[in-house]
Amino acid sequence: MPEDEYDVRGRHDDAIEERSAHGEPLGQKIALFSAILATIGAIISFLGGHTQNDALYYKNEAVLMKARASDSWSYYQAEDMKRHLAEAVARLSPVATGDDAVAATTYATRARALRAKAEDYDRRSEQADNESRHALRPHVKLSIAMTFVQVGIALASISALTRRRWLLWGAGGCAAIGVGLSVIAWF
């Protein structure tokens, strides 16, 4: 007697078919929620990287200006030493010529210009350093926000696997905290 001709169906077979025909609404919601969180995470990550790049640019500028200031201060000191030597020679020389006094004046004029240039480089270095600190300020909050978004994605994935809706609420809470922190980072 051929037993293969009869298909005996159980309630679980009907439930599986119904689920596959209508789809899993929770699974679809979780997939959509995870995709949205991944997009938000990509935006937050981009903004965090952008703040780092700006901070590095300004820090680089600060170092460059500090090096130029150091060079200018060295030139200033050299000119000032030449001025002191010319003045000493003019005072101590038994045969006083006007050349030493003129040289001292020339060195003093150059030294004043070099000092102003060095002070300007110092000021510009400090400005660039302040810009660097200002550009990096939102980075920490953006990093924490990205962490919360990633935790939200992980909780949503666990919710899909375990079919526990309360985990999805936790994922939503983490996502809300992450988005809130990323908004706060810019104010």
Would you spell out the secondary-structure blueprint of this structure?
Blueprint (H helix, E strand, L loop, with lengths): L10 H12 L2 H68 L5 H65 L2 H20 L3
Helix pairs in contact: 2-3, 2-4, 3-4
Would you kindly provide a written description of the structure presented here, covering whatever features stand out?
- This protein has one domain (26-184).
- Helix 2 packs antiparallel against helix 3, helix 2 (25-92) packs parallel to helix 4 and helix 3 (98-162) packs antiparallel against helix 4 (165-184).
- It has helices spanning 11-22, 25-92, 98-162, 165-184.
- By secondary structure, the protein is mainly α.
- The protein has 4 helices and no strands.
- The chain is rod-shaped.
Strand content: under 5%
Structural class: mainly alpha
Task: List segments where confidence is low: pLDDT < 50 over at least 5 consecutive residues.
Answer: none
Radius of gyration: 36 Å
Calculate the mean pLDDT score and round it. Answer: 86
Basic shape: rod-shaped
As a percent range, the share of helical residues equals over 70%
Structural domain tally? 1
* Number of beta-strand segments: 0
State the major sheet: none
Order of helices and strands: HHHH
Number of helices: 4
Distance between the termini: 80 Å
Index terms:
187 residues; mainly alpha; 4 helices
Quick gist of this model?
This protein is an all-alpha fold and 187 residues long. 88% of the residues lie in helices and 0% in strands.
